[in-house]
Amino acid sequence: MALFAAAGTAMAQPYGNARLVSPPQYGQIKMVLGAARLVAQPAAECSAEGKPWTSAPCFDPIFARLRQTGETSATVVGLFRPALDGEVVRGTYGYDFALFEVTKQGAKFNVSKIDTQTSAVRAPQDCFSLPDEDVLYRMDRRGEVSVAQEMLAVVCGGAPRRTYGGYMAQGASIPAQEPPVGQAPKLNVPVWATTEKRFLKGERRYLANKDGDCPKDQRVDGDYCASAAVALFGAQSDLKELDLIASERRVEEGATLTDKDIDQWVLKRKGKGAKQKLEADDRWFAHSNLEAIPGCTPVRDTTYRVVRHDGQLYVQEEVLAQCGAPPAPTPFATYEAYGDERPVAQFKPGCPKDLTMLSNICFDEVIAY
After folding, report:
1. Which helix (DSSP H) or strand (DSSP E) does residue 152 occupy?
2. What are the strands, taking DSSP E only, across 211-289?
3. Domain edges within the chain
């Protein structure tokens, strides 16, 4: 007998004499709600204060709302093209829309863009994310206020029947009651991490800058300027080795490098006394200082950003991660299958000699078969 699993899409195909033990477990597509965000849209007429830069949407309605309610801050969905009530907005972050943090200080307002898309969507732990589905926004009217209701399509209770988009939500949203303006819904069940994109970052790492400007005694491996690393060895006599990132080209502050642009080295002391010097050896295995965040999974390759600290250049690892519900499981069915009966050769006391082979193994059943 053998138990084996088959993809749910193959259920209609026969498997000989296999018997279906358990069919695929499919879930329901649900829409999980996040916060009802205030909305800034392009407007033909907008005050100079309400349009902080040329391409900005108009924040006048946001400022008016904060003055009215006495609130001092709000996370706002900014649209770069007008949208009507009931319209669903999705697209590329920073191009079709972006999130902004609006703060009120005295009589003045400050507007700053949020680097990556975040939300207040937290899916229940029996729900899972769907391929290529991000948080989207449904334009609503709550009394006199325009809001963008955060929504995310997920699958709950099992696997999705298809994995190529065009998902239609079934039944009520989660939760069924939409939240008040500016607030996030509350769920009385265990939930996953907040649905958002975040940059995972590591500690600063020492840089060897190819063809950089520095004295000869601050160079390693010939052409690489490693002033900060060399200075550390000079200041710490007991330091034996140091992790080092070597750029394959000259870089300046703000440059972004990929794995193809760097080598990972270990800088070590070699020799003794006056003959002691620093030598760089290639790492056998890549090393990372990235700090993991529970519920977040990298979705792009690691990059190395050149930063300046205390007048010296370093690199800092960073990688874009998707946080929230884990990916939906793949549907599968379990079958039970039987093969043909076969005779068994085994040790038997008193087996006739002409039926005994391979060190007293009795083949009587095999020969009879």
Report:
1. strand 145-156
2. 219-220, 224-225, 241-247, 256-257, 262-270, 277-282
3. 28-192, 198-323, 344-369
> How do the pLDDT tens digits run along the chain, 369 residues long?
555 455 654 444 445 678 888 899 999 999 999 999 999 999 999 999 999 999 999 999 999 999 999 999 999 999 999 999 999 999 999 999 999 999 999 999 999 999 999 999 999 999 999 999 999 999 999 888 999 999 999 999 999 998 787 899 999 999 999 999 989 999 999 999 999 999 999 899 999 999 888 898 899 988 899 999 999 999 998 999 999 999 999 999 999 999 999 999 999 988 877 777 888 889 888 888 888 889 999 999 999 999 999 999 999 999 999 999 999 998 888 888 888 888 999 999 999 989 999 888 999 999 988
Q: What is the C-alpha separation between 284 and 275, in angstroms, rounded?
A: 27
Secondary structure of 24-93 as H, E, C letters: CCECEEEEEEEEEEEEEECCCCCCCCCCCCCCCCECHHHHHHHHHHCCCEEEEEEECCCCCCCCEECCCE
pTM here? Answer: 0.79
CA distance 130 to 328: 6
Q: What angle do CA 307, 287, 272 make, to 5 degrees?
A: 90
- Pairwise CA distance, residues 283 & 297, whole Å: 26
Give dist(CA 44, CA 38) in Å, integer: 19
CB count in 10 Å sphere of residue 140: 17
Cβ atoms within 10 Å of 80's Cβ, excluding its own = 16
- Here the tokens at position 212 are 């950089």
CB 122 within 8 A of CB 187: yes
DSSP structure string for 285-332: S----BPP-TTEEE-S--EEEEEEETTEEEEEEEEEEEESSPBPPPPE
Whether 29 contacts 167, CB under 8 Å: yes
What does the block give as tokens for 90? Answer: 């999705």
The two structure tokens encoding residue 366: 């095999």
67 phi-psi bin (left φ>0, alpha ψ -120 to 50, beta other): alpha
